[in-house]
# Entry
Amino acid sequence: MRLSVVSPVYNEENSLRYFYQQLNSELKKISSSWEVIFVNDGSNDNSSKILLEIAHKNKKVKVIEFSRNFGQTAALMAGIEYARGKFIITIDSDLQNDPKDIVKLVKKLNQGYAVVSGWRKNRKDNLFLRTIPSKLANILISKVTGVKLHDYGCTLKAYKSNVLKDLKLYGEMHRYIPLYINNYPNSKITEVPIEHHRRLYGESKYGVSRVIKVFLDLILVEFLFKYSQKPIYIFGFFGILSFLFSIIFFILTLYFKFFGGKSFIETPLPLLVVLFFIVGFQSILMGLISEMLTRTYYESQQKKIYYVKNLINIKKSEN
# Structure
């Protein structure tokens, strides 16, 4: 198998047939050896029925149906785990990504790149709710990680399958796959401008809250990459910092007591500042610890982050 296309589906009944027609037409031009893996992420419309019809007409189309909605990261991971192609393409099924751009990505893979990321240069989304927050998030991620991409959130990406097979992702970490692969030796990453279309059907699954999630995920990624084998460095740093602030506020308390004419009980502000400062850091650190425990829970027991209800045109032995 040369090419595997993985496409998450969640309530896309109006776009699925046309998207498949476009995809089928383009893949025939690229290679005779390909498969399409649709991952139905717990859709509650007619997406499941439409996918079943498509799969029955074309055995190259495979369908993974989840028992409920697990999110885009889980859908992509399931598709990648079942994919058999040398190259793996991920693409949205909502018609905003254009299947005609797949050939551009494949050409870059043939040039030796391990990851080729799509760049929605002329993005057709709401300017204030999606485009601007996305650009700010991309700038932040590039600055912090040093991996400079214009569009981390674009689903249309191409990978060499050998760099994906051992990857374990949780939560909403799919946008950071290039960062994980960047740590592999000799894994070159590039991006190409692609077409982006306005959404014709349904509603976007993302909102402004996604920016907060991106920021928190970025903290987690940096922690996992830099401190997962030496957590004492980061925990120790924040511990010393907290002690430093405690000393500063203690000195201020003494100053108000002996030079400001205020007793300890008359100056609650330093206590509140210290309290909230420590609680804030404790919350972040507890979040990091919880993430590490989650990974231990899943990986030590070989648990998956999704449950498959049905497989169409896929043998269980292929996983």
